[in-house]
Amino acid sequence: MPLLGPFATPMNRLVACLALGLIAAAGPVWAIAPLPDPDGKPADMTKPVQVFILMGQSNMLGFGKVAGADKEDTLEYATKSAGLYPYLVDDAGNWTTRNDVRNVRVMVGRGGGMGVHDNEWLTIKGKAIGPEVGIGHQLGHLIDAPVMVLKSCASATAPFVLATLGQTKQGDGGNDGTILDAMLAVDGESGKHPEFKGNVATVYTNPISKGGASNGHYGGNAQTYMNVGEALGEAMVKLLQAGSPGGAK
User: Fold this and answer.
1) For residue 95, what pLDDT is reported?
2) Does 188 have pLDDT greater than 70?
3) From the CB of residue 66, how many other CB atoms can be counted at a distance below 10 Å?
4) Residues 6+ apart with CB under 8 A from 89
């Protein structure tokens, strides 16, 4: 299966795995540092591909609406009217493309076979986005080596970034509160398991979610998917910088 596309180098290291329900686990409220526009340059193809596996269900697939500059919950409105995520739009108002980050999505079809649904440079296309956009831009900015953001499922010994359900607040009871507490507990910095320090980060998404709930795909609000994606990407960047894996700029 030609998953690598133009990445013809050996994929001999699996650097990271992002496990997301939507969308990952808890911790501090993330203040996202602004990113520059992509420079349009390819990655250093002499270096091994750095693969980041995104795992989840429908919210990982992505329901953040793209089109509709007059609708406050769309990506067009967020970027072109509200001035958010400026690195996604060039001076001419077109969506930018990262030529150093490959966006690949594989899924098992209803007939049981695995298929490749996306295999392209990271950009905005189609009707909806998931958190892969924010994640990919964060990682592409950090890493000189080719980056692949792969939506799939796998297990690996690698850094993990988790995210809480956006509708659940700290202090909530019931099953949602229990899940949140468990996700917070595995955070390597502030959780109850010091053995996860430097290997597991958790992102508390309630403050950066724009309403709605996971079972309703957060109303399709593009800002929720972008905000959470950026926070997850930044959390992974911090783990990578702390561990100094090959390829970090």
Assistant:
1) 97
2) yes
3) 19
4) 79, 80, 95, 96
Name the phi and psi angles at 194, rounded to 5. Answer: -60, -20
Q: How confident is the model at residue 199 (pLDDT cuts 50, 70, 90)?
A: confident
Average pLDDT over residues 142-146: 94
Selection from 144, 108, 145, 140 nearest residue 122 by Cα: 140
The bridge status of strand 50-55 relative to strand 147-151 is parallel
For the chain, list the domains and their CATH numbers.
19-243 (3.40.50)
Q: Which residue has the tokens 């949602």?
A: 176
Prediction pTM value:
0.66
CA 233, 140, 153 angle in degrees (round to 5)?
Answer: 55
CA distances from 39 to 97, 98, 114 (A): 9, 8, 34
Q: Which tokens in the block code for residue 77?
A: 């409105």
CA dihedral 131, 137, 138, 144 (to 10 degrees): 140
The pLDDT of residue 246 is above 50: no
- DSSP-based three-state secondary structure for 145: coil
Kindly state the tokens that stand for 76: 């067009």
